[in-house]
Amino acid sequence: MTGANYRGFERTLINALNAPRNSSDNAPSSVNATFFSTPHFANASNAANSHTTTVNALWLSDIHLGCKDCKADYLLNLLNTVRCQHLYLVGDIVDLWALKRRLHWPESHNKVLQKLIELAQNGTQVMYLPGNHDELIKPYAELTLLNIKIARQHIHQGIGGHKLLMLHGDQFDADVCVGRFYAILGDHLYDLLLFLNRNLHRLRERLGYPYWSLASYIKSRVGKAQTAISRYRQAVVQYAQHYDVDGVVCGHIHQPELSIQPRDNQYTTPDKRQIIYANDGDWVENCSLITETLSGELQLCRWNEQSLSLDILRSIMLVQTPPNSPIPMPAQASRPAPQTATHSPIQAEIQPRDVA
């Protein structure tokens, strides 16, 4: 996209944001388990190829369209391969900070934005929770733009009845900071890591190797980075416990994770002793996402650009069933059955599983 075209796109976006609000659009949205009943999904199912995957909900964050490190081509392949009833964009979708510094809007970024709008126009329930890099959108919470609902945070009710609070997570930056010196140093080192990551990816791609994140590898071995990640996780979980939810889905720190955390004593009840922490990662370093399958299983996935499919990294099953009753499971002979947590007076401990 040329500079002139981008300025035209920017004016169109601003005009749309400033359009009169429709009172029906301002009504709070509700999520239910009735899905794939519209003609759109019937037609999409018929047109889908054999590699298409269908899920109930899909969470994406930190795409950073407008940033030169965004893996837009990989994301476009994902959106053309995985179909969902609910698509949640959990902040930093368009990187307005990067666009202010340097105009970068290639055709692949434009196609991703068009695909998101196309999905919203054709039956997918799309919700946008702005982050810090796209904070221009935050004042328009509760508005529906191009069939995309905008909210600051939202609670998703899953197929199994579990509730997941969703937010970007930038409001916890003060809790994460490990000192001004380390924050400034971290910003410069992260820019360097992304530069090295970008050039290493180009070399590996030429040699036929799959994508691998040098930035994530190094961050996992830096003590201060791990301290910040731990503090962020703790702050998000503590905040989520104020709500009657089973888990929280966030982004912001570019660190994908799906784990079980203990509740604080004041929020612990006989049937709720733990809470799910789900960070869907990013599309700058990790190409990761969170999905909820049609059987109510939460999965942390990474996009495999070579097989054009999802690699499942971790999974948690949450279903509402009476004690000692059989739990219906999908036919997946090649994969071990996930552990199950029941919402009953006799509650089993929630156990995640790793999938090779």
Automatic annotation (TrEMBL):
Domain Calcineurin-like phosphoesterase: 58-256
Region (Disordered): 323-356
Keyword Ligase carried by entry: no
Record flagged with keyword Cell inner membrane: yes
Keyword annotations of the record: Cell inner membrane, Cell membrane, Manganese, Membrane, Metal-binding
InterPro entries: Calcineurin-like_PHP, LpxH-like, Metallo-depent_PP-like
Name listed for the protein in its UniProt record: UDP-2,3-diacylglucosamine diphosphatase
Taxonomic path: Bacteria, Pseudomonadati, Pseudomonadota, Gammaproteobacteria, Alteromonadales
